[in-house]
Amino acid sequence: MPTVHRQQGWKVQIFANDHAPPHVHLVSAEHKIVAEIATGQVLKGSEASVRALAESLAWVLENRSRLLAEWNRIVEREDD
């Protein structure tokens, strides 16, 4: 599970054998959410986790193109 970004106690991860739609795992010591890259929609996680990881979710939206490129690179490599 490559970490593609790390900042102030949270990290953004993309799992190699993950399912569509392209998404990231936003993880801190106490919280986890899964968010769709293209829209920032939270696919999995509690309301408390979403509030705690709001900064990381904003980062995802600002870096969508980079994250989609990483998703394609990581998932494509695993499909070979």
UniProtKB/TrEMBL annotation:
Matching entries from InterPro entries are given as:
DUF4160
According to its UniProt record, what is one Pfam family this protein matches?
Answer: DUF4160
The organism's place on the tree of life at top rank: Bacteria
Q: What is this protein called?
A: DUF4160 domain-containing protein
Q: Which organism is it from?
A: Thalassobaculum fulvum
